[in-house]
C-alpha cells in the first residue's frame, strides 16, 4: 500500500482522530518545563536580587511565561466570533454517482470525519448565546480527496445579493463605532438605516425577526448552504445544487422573553446544551439534503436561482436526503480546535463546484483572506484541526509558523531535478478540474434585472407562518424598531414592510409610534411554503429537560415513577429546590437536589413538573420563586405537569384560565393547553405518557392569547 493509499484508508476509516492524537498532550503526572524543555524548579517566585529586591532580566522563565501570556489572544473572527465546535462523522445513504463524483458521497460504509462549528454572527466572543441572530453552521469534511467545507447558516437566504455589500451590512449591524453599543443586537439605528436604504434585505429581515433567529438548541436547527453550488458527475454533467442540514430532533425555538433572560442567567446556554448532550451520549444528528435543478431548467423559476436572497421552496424543488452526520465527541481544547479551525466556502473537492452567484463569488476571496490575519499567516492549514487527511504536496514554502520541514532544493514547477514532482493529477484520476461553464459578457458593474424582485418571497414567507409565528414577528419588530431612536427611520421601516404585508406594517406601526400606511386590497402573492413553518417540523420529546420542583416531605414513589417514565421516553430531569443538598421524603427516602432557584430557573427547562407530598407543597406555596417557575413556564408556553397535591401549586399560580384536575377527581387525567394534571392517583403511567406528549409538542402557542395576564 503506497502512502496515498494509506492516507485514503485513514480517511475512509475516519482516522482524523488518530491524526490529531499526534498533537494532543496530556500534562498529567508530567514535570513543568519551559517551552524549550528545561525543567523549572519554581514557578511561583520571580528571580530577584535578594528576596525583597528587584526582579532580574535574566529570569528567562518569567519572561517566557509572561510573553506567552501577553500574546494569548488572537483577533476574533470579524463575524461569527462566538462559536461552539464538535467532532463527528458523516455517512452517505447511497452512491450519489449519478449526480456527483465527490468520493465521500459514494460509499455508505465510509465514515468521513467531520468537525462542526456553530456560531452567532454579530456578537463578540464573549457575547450571549441566545441573542436574536443568524446562526452559523460550518462543517469541515475530512474526505479522502481533501477537505470540503460546507459553510452554512441556519437561515436559507442572505441579507444581500452581491458580496461587495458584505462590509456595509456587517458595519451597520455591529455595535455603533462611536460608543460600541449595542452588543450582539440589530435593535439600533444604523442597522435599520441600512435596511430601509437597501430593499434587498426585506426578505432576510423577515427570517431574522422570526423564531428561526432564537433557536432552542444548535441540535434543533436546520442548516443551509445558502449559495447555489454545482454538482458535477464523472461524465462532466453539472447540476445546480443547494445544501441542507435537517436535524432529526426537528426545528425548535425559544421565545423572546426567555432568550433575553437566558442571556443573563446562562450566556453559555447553547454551548452548554451541545457539550452536555454529547457528554451524555445524546449525539446530535443531522441529515444532509440536496435540492437539485437541471442546467436546462435554470430559467424556469420566477426567481433567479443565483440570487442568494431567494430560497428554492421545497414544495417546488424537493430536498433529497442523502446521508447523515452524527456529532459524537467534544473538543479537548477550545482554542486549539474551535477557535483555530478555519473554514472557507472555496474549500471544495472534485464533484462540487461553484456557480456565478455573486455572493458566492465574493465569499471565495474573503475566507482565505480573513484567515491570514486571524491565524497569523499563510500556514494555517498546518494547524492540526485544519490539516487534511489527504496528503499535501506543493511548492509553497516558509511563512509565519511553518511546521512542515520540506526536504530538498526544489520548490518550483516545472522542474527537471525532481522529474517535475509534485506532479499534477489529471481529471481522470480525480485531479480538480473546474466546470467548463461558458462565460460571455461585457465587464459591467451591474446586476441582472432578474435580481430586482425583493418582496415576493418575503410575502411568501409571511404567508407561510402560523398565527403564533406571525405574532412573534410583529413582537420582534416592536422590540427591534423600539430600539431605533430616529423616528423617521421607524416610519421608513413601516413603509418598507407595507410592501410585504399591510397588516404587518399596521401592526408594526401601532407598536412603535408611527403612522400605518393606508390598507390596500391585500397581498398579490397568495402562495405559501409550509416547509418553512416550524409548526410543521418533527415533534420529539427526546433529549428534553424537565425541572422538578420539590421540598422536604415530597412523595418519593410518585416522583421516582415519573422520573423513570420520562427517562424511558428519552426525557431528562433535574431536581430543583430552594437549597442544594439532600432533601427527604415523607417516608424518609432522600434525593439529591441538582439546582437551587439562584442557579437555575424555568427558562433552563423545556417543561416543569410538580409532584405530590403535602409537606413539600405547603413549603412550595410559600416560595415566590416556585410560583414564578410555574407562571413563567406557562407564559413561555411550555409543558407543565402536576400530580396529586402538586396540583395545588398550579391552583395558587396565575394560570387559572387553564382547566386542571379538581380536588374531588379520582385519577382523572386532565390535559388543557399543554398542562397535564391528575389527582388521587398512585400509578403515574398514564400521567407520564400524557406529559411526554405535551413535552414533545415543544410549545403550546394557543396559550399566548391569555398570556398577557400572567405576571412573569
Ligand atoms: Fe461568511 C465566517 C456563513 C456570507 C465572509 N461565514 C462565516 C462562518 C459561517 C459563515 C458559518 C463562520 C465559520 C466558522 O465557524 O469559523 N457567510 C456564511 C453564509 C453566507 C456568508 C452561509 C451566505 C451565503 N461571508 C459571507 C459573505 C462574506 C463572508 C458574503 C464576504 C464576502 N464569513 C466571512 C468571513 C468569515 C466568515 C469574513 C469570518 C471568519 C471567517 O470567515 O473565518 O470571511
Automatic annotation (TrEMBL):
There is a cross-link at residues 344-367 (3'-histidyl-3-tyrosine (His-Tyr)). Residues 33-421 form the Catalase core domain. SUPFAM superfamilies: Class I glutamine amidotransferase-like, Heme-dependent catalase-like. Its cofactor is heme. Residues 32-44 have a biased composition (Polar residues). One of its GO terms (cellular component) is cytosol. Residues 1-53, 518-537 are annotated as: Disordered. Heme binds at residues 77, 117, 166, 363, 367, 374. Its EC number is 1.11.1.6. It catalyses: 2 H2O2 = O2 + 2 H2O. The active site is at residues 80, 153. PROSITE patterns: CATALASE_1 (PS00437), CATALASE_2 (PS00438), CATALASE_3 (PS51402). Residues 10-31 have a biased composition (Basic and acidic residues). It comes from the Bacteria. SMART domains: Catalase. Keywords: Heme, Hydrogen peroxide, Hydrolase, Iron, Metal-binding, Oxidoreductase, Peroxidase, Protease. Gene3D superfamilies: 1.20.1370.20, 3.40.50.880, Catalase core domain. It is an enzyme of class 1 (oxidoreductase). GO terms for biological process: hydrogen peroxide catabolic process; proteolysis; response to oxidative stress. GO terms for molecular function: catalase activity; heme binding; metal ion binding; peptidase activity. The keyword Metal-binding applies. Belongs to the catalase family. HPII subfamily. Decomposes hydrogen peroxide into water and oxygen; serves to protect cells from the toxic effects of hydrogen peroxide. This is Catalase. It comes from Candidatus Syntrophocurvum alkaliphilum.
Amino acid at each position: 500500500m503506497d502512502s496515498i493509499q494509506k492516507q485514503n484508508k485513514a480517511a475512509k476509516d475516519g482516522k482524523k482522530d488518530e491524526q490529531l492524537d499526534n498533537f494532543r498532550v496530556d500534562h498529567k503526572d508530567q514535570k513543568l518545563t519551559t517551552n524549550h524543555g528545561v525543567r523549572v524548579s519554581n514557578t511561583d517566585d520571580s528571580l530577584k536580587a535578594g528576596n525583597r529586591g528587584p526582579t532580574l532580566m535574566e529570569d528567562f522563565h518569567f519572561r517566557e511565561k509572561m510573553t506567552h501570556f501577553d500574546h494569548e489572544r488572537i483577533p476574533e473572527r470579524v463575524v461569527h466570533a462566538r462559536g461552539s465546535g464538535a467532532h463527528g462523522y458523516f455517512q452517505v445513504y447511497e452512491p450519489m454517482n449519478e449526480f456527483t463524483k465527490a468520493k465521500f458521497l459514494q460509499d455508505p460504509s465510509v465514515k468521513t470525519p467531520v468537525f462542526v462549528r456553530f456560531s452567532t454572527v454579530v456578537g463578540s466572543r464573549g457575547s450571549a448565546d441566545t441573542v436574536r441572530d443568524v446562526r452559523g453552521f460550518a462543517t469541515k469534511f475530512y474526505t479522502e480527496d481533501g477537505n470540503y467545507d460546507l459553510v452554512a447558516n441556519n437561515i436559507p437566504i442572505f441579507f444581500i445579493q452581491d458580496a461587495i455589500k458584505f462590509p456595509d451590512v456587517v458595519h451597520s449591524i455591529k455595535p455603533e463605532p462611536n460608543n460600541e453599543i449595542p452588543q450582539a443586537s440589530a435593535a439600533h439605528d444604523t442597522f435599520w438605516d441600512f435596511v430601509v436604504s437597501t430593499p434587498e434585505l426585506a426578505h432576510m429581515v423577515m427570517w431574522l425577526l422570526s423564531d428561526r433567529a432564537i433557536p432552542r438548541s444548535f441540535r434543533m436547527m436546520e442548516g443551509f448552504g445558502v449559495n447555489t453550488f454545482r454538482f458535477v458527475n464523472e461524465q462532466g454533467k453539472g447540476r445546480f445544487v443547494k445544501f441542507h442540514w435537517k436535524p432529526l430532533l426537528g426545528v425548535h425555538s425559544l421565545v423572546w422573553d426567555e432568550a433575553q433572560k437566558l442571556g443573563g442567567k446562562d450566556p453559555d446556554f447553547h454551548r452548554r446544551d451541545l457539550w452536555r448532550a454529547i457528554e451524555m451520549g445524546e449525539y446530535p444528528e443531522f441529515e444532509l439534503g440536496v435540492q437539485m435543478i437541471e442546467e436546462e431548467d435554470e430559467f424556469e423559476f420566477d426567481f433567479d436561482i443565483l440570487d442568494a436572497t431567494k430560497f428554492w421552496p421545497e414544495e417546488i424543488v424537493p430536498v433529497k436526503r442523502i446521508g447523515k452526520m452524527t456529532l459524537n465527541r467534544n473538543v479537548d481544547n477550545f482554542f486549539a480546535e474551535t477557535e483555530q479551525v478555519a473554514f472557507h466556502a472555496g474549500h471544495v473537492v472534485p464533484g462540487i463546484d461553484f456557480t456565478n452567484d455573486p455572493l458566492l463569488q465574493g465569499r471565495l476571496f474573503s475566507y482565505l483572506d480573513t484567515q491570514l490575519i486571524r491565524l497569523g499567516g499563510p500556514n494555517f492549514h498546518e494547524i492540526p484541526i485544519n490539516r487534511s487527511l489527504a496528503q499535501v504536496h506543493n511548492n509553497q514554502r516558509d511563512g509565519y509558523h511553518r511546521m512542515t520541514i520540506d526536504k530538498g532544493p526544489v520548490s518550483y514547477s516545472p522542474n527537471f531535478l525532481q522529474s517535475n514532482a509534485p506532479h499534477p493529477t489529471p481529471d481522470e484520476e480525480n485531479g480538480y478540474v473546474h466546470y467548463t461553464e461558458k462565460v460571455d459578457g461585457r465587464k459591467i458593474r451591474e446586476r441582472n434585472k432578474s435580481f430586482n424582485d425583493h418582496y415576493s418571497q418575503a410575502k411568501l414567507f409571511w404567508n407561510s407562518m402560523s398565527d403564533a409565528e406571525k405574532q412573534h414577528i410583529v413582537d420582534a419588530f416592536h422590540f427591534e424598531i423600539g430600539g431605533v431612536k430616529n423616528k423617521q427611520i421607524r416610519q421608513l421601516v413601516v413603509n418598507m414592510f407595507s410592501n410585504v404585508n399591510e397588516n404587518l406594517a399596521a401592526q408594526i406601526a401601532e407598536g412603535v409610534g408611527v403612522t400605518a400606511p393606508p390598507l390596500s386590497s391585500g397581498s398579490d402573492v397568495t402562495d405559501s411554503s409550509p416547509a418553512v413553518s416550524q409548526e410543521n417540523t418533527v415533534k420529539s420529546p427526546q433529549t428534553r429537560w424537565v425541572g422538578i420542583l420539590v421540598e422536604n416531605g415530597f412523595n418519593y414513589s410518585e416522583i421516582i415513577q415519573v422520573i423513570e417514565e420520562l427517562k424511558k421516553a428519552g426525557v431528562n430531569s433535574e431536581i430543583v429546590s430552594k437549597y442544594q443538598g439532600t432533601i427527604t421524603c415523607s417516608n424518609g427516602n432522600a434525593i439529591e437536589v441538582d439546582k437551587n432557584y439562584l442557579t437555575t430557573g424555568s427558562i433552563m427547562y423545556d417543561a416543569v413538573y410538580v409532584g405530590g407530598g403535602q409537606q413539600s407543597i405547603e413549603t412550595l406555596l410559600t416560595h415566590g420563586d416556585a410560583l414564578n417557575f410555574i407562571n413563567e413556564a406557562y407564559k413561555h408556553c411550555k409543558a407543565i405537569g402536576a400530580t396529586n397535591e402538586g396540583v395545588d401549586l398550579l391552583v395558587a399560580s396565575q394560570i387559572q384560565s387553564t382547566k386542571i384536575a379538581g380536588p374531588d377527581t379520582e385519577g382523572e387525567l386532565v390535559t388543557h393547553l399543554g398542562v397535564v394534571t391528575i389527582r388521587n392517583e398512585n400509578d403515574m403511567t398514564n400521567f407520564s405518557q400524557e406529559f411526554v406528549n405535551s413535552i414533545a409538542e415543544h410549545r403550546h402557542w394557543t396559550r399566548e392569547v391569555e398570556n398577557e395576564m400572567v405576571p412573569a
